[in-house]
Amino acid sequence: xxxxxxxxxVLSEAEQFALYGLPDFDDSQRMQYLFFSGGELSLxxxxxxxxxxxxxxxxxxxxxxKHAFFQFSxxxxxxxxxxxxxxxxxxxxxxxQIITRHEYYTQRKVIAEFFGYRLWxxxxxxxxxxxxxxxxxxxxxxxxxxxxLIPYLNGTKLSGQAILRCRRSSVRLFPKNVAVYLDLLxxxxxxxxxx
Length: 195
What we know:
The chain is mainly alpha-helical and 195 residues long. The protein contains twelve helices and two strands; from the N terminus they run E-E-H-H-H-H-H-H-H-H-H-H-H-H. It folds into two domains: 86 residues, no CATH class; 94 residues, no CATH class. A hairpin with a 3-residue loop joins strand 1 and strand 2. The longest helix is centred in the N-terminal third of the chain and has 17 residues. The N terminus and C terminus are likely disordered.
């Protein structure tokens, strides 16, 4: 385990990937997560252009698997793209284009709303702080806190990833014993540094 400040151990690389890494689907999981309902397909085809549509389809599948959003390269998702293009895009020619920041955040918003999730807002600080404090009464190990926090966030339909995107300025609003965990987590939540 990596140690921060020589006192606080954080998640191992395997634990980080399991919780926060881009899903690495096998064929069975692709059938489960990249098979879309009519409503999901409506979200996909409401996006402008085939690149945004394919990106949206991938985000929906990844969200269904991990309740998180990812910034990824087209190369990272080649096998998943090869799975969805013939099924949903009639094998249209796909020339990958860059997804704009605006499109990425719009997709996050519509996908979260579709699945009944809420994206992070500072109004959730008291609720999250209380939950982390309760978890810490049982065990203060960072891996335990994270392992208990993720199901709580999913159960309350609050996108965990959005919470972990809060920067140090937001973290300062939490009590000190809680802030130390939130301060560690953002770098492990996405697979792209600085997002």
